[in-house]
Automatic annotation (TrEMBL), chains A, B:
Taxonomy of the source species: Bacteria, Pseudomonadati, Pseudomonadota, Alphaproteobacteria, Hyphomicrobiales
Protein source organism: Aureimonas jatrophae
Cofactor: FAD
Official protein name in the record: D-lactate dehydrogenase (cytochrome)
Keyword Lipoprotein: no
Keyword flag Lipid biosynthesis: no
Length: 469, 469
């Protein structure tokens, strides 16, 4: 008869084997564990039992095989910037920190692609590419790892022109739940050779496999870049300008919405003095002639929608200052209320419904007892409300929850999604059935069971628990 | 004790139930069945046992439920233009012809999307959109149905600018193997809400579910369009021009390669008198200013690679004539040898390897006893050899098979794919393991088993049989 092993004993035995395998690159230090059980949002820390630092795909496979033998969860960790509780060890388990897998493995300049280990960050890759005339375009703000960005289908301010990770991942190397190593695709720019495994793993948040290498598309550095700012009388005219710009096929590099409250926060945090009104930040990129034409077209559209006060930033430094301010929005909001936490919503809707959705969200948050502001990747129909709450105050958390639920409900009614780019984690799992329908979520469950029958890969994420939704 | 029912009796009983369900929209006429058991390539006819013509998603679901009850295969049929035996009823079964599901269900001009029934063809959709200023961009040449294009991840001449069906499908309605109806996604332009079911079904060739409705992205009609032709001293300089054009970020609308033999065939078939040399067909699209700039940039690149004889086609009629000639290439080749069949290869490689792959393929075909020529969507690294063979002559078939096998082997060694846009069907299934590795193909098998445990959805397609690869 087999001796019954307690869960604690089982985990301890696993950690011992991981130590034998990885030496000091497996740790149970409390601070390390806590760091690996949190992202950057309101979700409470749920620390894993141990943290491993592999150096290669083969080591990740070894870790996963040991976890599978012990039936213990594994959670991949990139830069720790996720926002929906992706990293919470809801059932304990082993965190696999990918940051030491930081090698750029190949740059194929002629083919416009690069292959990196999953722990390479987007800024690191772009620094590596500096002398090639090429760059990696996706910019979620945070200096996330490429593996994390692929796993959460990240996008950000440049998606209006270059798409999201869905469009920019060429191929992945993935460790499956049983430790097998799979290459999802060739380096061909397009293929119709079987099921699209690449897109299956992009956005699967470590629940179907662990991404260890990423091949991404690169783009040529534009000849010139120009930023512009323009303010509007109201949200509707701001969004209308964005819609008309997209409809005219102007390939803007970026097109970001900030409401008056967001501009106020950014002004204070970054020492700017922008007019506190609904605003669009533009970036134009291309040949000088193309930029001139595009600027003119967009200025005309904006004027038609009552725009005031165009201003341009042509110098690299001035542009960097502007976009830095936009990217610091999250921290600008936090600075309004030291010690508080920023809850970022993430609805994405067909653009025709965007203005109404943003206006309703702002109206509902107007009398909240905490700071709130709206920003948006408005060309894609994606916007974020930031609620700066005291997570120790249940009333504030409940209010933010109600605001988010109302905003999600409205987005789904408009034919949109509860999460444009932050992913599901466990924070949004409750909305999955409302968005996709029970049948589609059942199909997702079939995929999960087929690829991870033990449910050891980031359990409790993406798919709602039986009592949710 | 249950009476044993023969396969024939079982199918007959199913057909009787389908007749009761659909009346005359279920037929067993020999000519209908034979028409539905062939595509447009060299694969022999394998007729289904009956053909059904549903009018709605619910009717498709009803047909699939009946087939599942009787454990009989179902094969979706669009325009019948597939090239790798996708439609062959290898194990008999029911063909579901989608052509009467031909309704454009919604056009959302502001959101740049449209939802259609799967039997709507791309030309039909574009005719419907004529007055909106918008168009559907993917152009595989054939007037395929949108459902068929999604199912095979089609692309074609416009993919260099607009991407493939992978990038242009927003959402699908799919009937699963048990008759359940699944909507794969919202209409949001981007989402990170769970597994990418849309991309899972795009390219699955009716083996994971039957696509009944398709929501696609639309694009704004460009202000102006200009075509140009340019000839080169050899294949390498032609391809180099295409690579440099892509690297410079010139957003060409189309950029097509034809070798001297292809030009000869096209000249003869379409009454043109183009110089019989390696050639690029270009299309530029955008504002007049942008087109002027792009033309100049590309002309300079081409000159640097030894180009001769630029000529332009600015008028709509002249342009249409040129592109019609390109699109008629398949028929131009057939016209070289009346009664013969055109076998189209479909490798796609990283562009740095493209010239060598095309040159080797042409060299190997030079002494073949049948006409052969090369064309390519050269900005994507995708090229097709056309072998015009007598399928009644086993020696010719064997030679074409050997040529294709060598070409595929070379493409895979270069990091490419055996099929850029034609799909797998059963013609390419034998190459899937060589391209993806046994582990990745095993993952595909797990997906297939999870979603179609009875193996009734287009069996024998995409995944290799146990004795292949």
């Amino acid at each position: 008869m087999l001796r019954q092993v307690s869960s604690q004993e089982n985990t301890a035995a696993l950690v011992e084997r991981l130590r034998a395998f990885l030496g000091e690159r497996c740790t149970t230090s409390v601070s390390e564990r806590e760091h690996h059980g949190r992202g950057e949002s309101y979700h409470p820390v749920r620390a894993p039992d141990a943290v491993c630092y592999p150096l290669s795909t083969e080591e990740v496979a070894g870790i996963v095989r040991l976890c599978a033998e012990h039936d213990v969860p594994v959670i991949a960790f990139g830069a720790g910037t996720s926002l929906e509780g992706h990293l919470a060890a809801l059932k304990g388990g082993i965190s696999i920190d990918m940051r030491r897998m930081d090698q750029v493995l190949a740059v194929h300049a002629e083919d416009l692609d690069a292959t990196v280990q999953a722990g390479v960050t987007r800024k690191q890759l772009n620094a590596h590419l500096r002398d090639t005339g090429l760059f990696f375009a996706i910019d979620p703000g945070a200096d996330a790892t490429l593996g994390g960005m692929a796993a959460t289908r990240a996008s950000g301010t440049a998606a209006v022109r270059y798409g999201t990770m869905r469009e920019n991942v060429v191929s992945l190397t993935v460790v499956m739940a049983d430790g097998r190593i799979v290459k999802t695709a060739s380096r061909a720019r397009k293929s119709s050779a079987g099921y699209d495994l690449t897109r299956l793993f992009v956005g699967s948040e470590g629940t179907l496999g662990i991404i260890t290498e990423v091949t991404v598309r690169l783009h040529g550095q534009p000849e010139a870049v120009r930023a512009a700012i323009c303010t509007f009388p109201d949200v509707a005219s701001t969004v209308r300008t964005a819609i008309e710009t997209v409809q005219c096929g102007v390939p803007v590099g970026r097109m970001e919405f900030l409401d008056a409250a967001a501009i106020r926060a950014v002004n204070r945090h970054s020492g700017l003095s922008l007019a506190e009104a609904p605003t669009l930040f533009f970036e134009f990129a291309g040949s000088l002639a193309a930029i001139a034409g595009e600027t003119e077209t967009v200025a005309e559209i904006a004027r038609g929608n009552g725009a005031q006060g165009w201003s341009f930033a042509d110098g690299a430094e001035e542009r960097a200052r502007l976009w830095h301010a936009r990217h610091e929005f999250h921290y600008a909001m936090l600075a309004l209320r030291p010690g508080a936490t920023a809850w970022a919503t993430d609805a994405c809707v067909p653009v025709s419904a965007l203005a109404a959705c943003i206006e309703a969200a702002c109206r509902e948050a107007a009398d909240a007892p905490f700071p709130a502001a709206a920003v948006g990747h408005v060309g894609d129909g994606n916007f974020h409300m930031s609620y700066v709450i005291d997570t120790g105050d249940p009333a504030e958390v409940a209010r933010a929850e109600r605001l988010n639920a109302a905003l999600v409900k409205r987005a789904l009614e408009a034919g949109g999604t509860c999460t444009g780019e932050h992913g599901v984690g466990y924070g949004k799992a409750r909305y999955l059935v409302a968005e996709h329908g029970a049948e589609a979520v059942d199909v997702m469950r079939l995929l999960k069971s087929a690829l991870d029958p033990q449910n050891i890969l980031n359990p409790g994420k993406v798919l709602p628990a039986a009592d949710e939704g």
